[in-house]
Specification:
five-stranded antiparallel sheet, 22% strand, alpha+beta, single chain, Alpha-Beta Plaits, 34% helix, four-stranded antiparallel sheet
Length: 293
């Protein structure tokens, strides 16, 4: 007789389930989409937290925590039954999709949780299916990197570990960052990954060169600075020409608006870009809040 499973309320589990005879059912797009749909439907039917998953050709991994009285065995039975019915309907068969019982292990502590998270992420890479975890679309890593919500549960802070998987830094972002600062970012990408992502998503909000006459207050500024000068960029043509206010720290009341060449600006070895560019006015001196790395 099979031993009854023991479940701990409020615990995370690493769950693995294999296909019958380890047949490569989920190596094709249709199989992966079938499982993704089934997992999404399970999230709608049951209460559970899914912080990572990976659909491999012959098996699936889940990092899951049942909530509000829902039981892991009920969730897994529904997932396996529903996916099998869908598979057989598509293929006009009566085959057994899944093998024997699924494997489930309680996560013991935060170190264990982190190890399992990384193990699931690296599965497609170690099997030679992807060069990076986020390249495998049927995975939590892909969902977190691309900020796809609804199936995987994660916070913005937890997502930072996946943003660093973007490689290389988007060209539109690398254009704006001074060379030495870009080198520093590449060497410590995990530290500034949130800023890189923020900059990338905000670039389209920078007004195009020559249109601020119709805008009372631009949504986004870029702030370049040295020890003595603030450059508050209000417009950008997307290539090289910028327009903004230039403020000498010693003479804050004499700020002038002028066109600037990005290449010339970046040629100054002391120039830095403030990744956070919400600008405020204090004592007639233009300042920018945020990281000044």
């Amino acid at each position: 007789m099979r031993k009854n499973r023991e479940f701990i309320e409020g615990a995370f589990y690493h769950v693995t389930s294999r296909t019958n005879n380890r047949v490569s059912v989920f190596d094709k797009k249709i199989g992966q989409e079938l499982m993704l749909l089934t997992l999404q439907n399970a999230k709608e039917k049951f209460q559970f937290c899914l912080t990572n998953f990976c659909i491999m050709p012959t098996h699936i991994h889940l990092l899951i925590k049942p909530k509000n009285g829902d039981i892991l065995s009920n969730i897994m039975q529904w997932i396996k039954t529903r996916s099998a019915k869908r598979w057989n309907f598509i293929h006009h068969s009566n085959d057994h999709l899944w093998g024997q019982r699924y494997f489930a292990r309680v996560i013991q502590n935060m170190e264990d949780y982190s190890n399992v998270m990384n193990y699931i992420d690296k599965n497609p890479v170690e099997m030679g299916l992807a060069s990076a975890p986020s390249d495998w679309k049927a995975s939590g890593s892909f969902y977190k990197l691309h900020n796809i919500t609804g199936l995987v549960d994660y916070t913005p802070q937890e997502r930072l570990n996946y943003i660093k998987l973007i490689a290389p830094i988007p060209h539109s972002v690398s254009l704006l960052i001074p060379p030495f600062q870009l080198k520093h970012v590449l060497n410590h990408l995990e530290t500034y990954s949130d800023a890189i992502d923020h900059l990338y998503t905000s670039i389209p909000m920078i007004p195009q060169l020559g249109i601020t006459d119709t805008i009372q207050e631009p949504i986004v500024y870029l702030r370049y600075f040295t020890e003595t000068v603030d450059y508050l960029i209000q417009e950008y043509d997307g290539v090289d020409t910028m327009y903004g206010k230039v403020c000498n720290i010693a003479y804050p009341n004499n700020a002038k608006s002028q066109k600037l060449k990005l290449t010339q600006l970046k040629g100054n070895k002391h120039i830095k870009l403030d990744f956070h560019w919400k600008v405020q006015r204090t004592n007639d001196r233009l300042l920018a809040s945020g990281i000044t790395s």
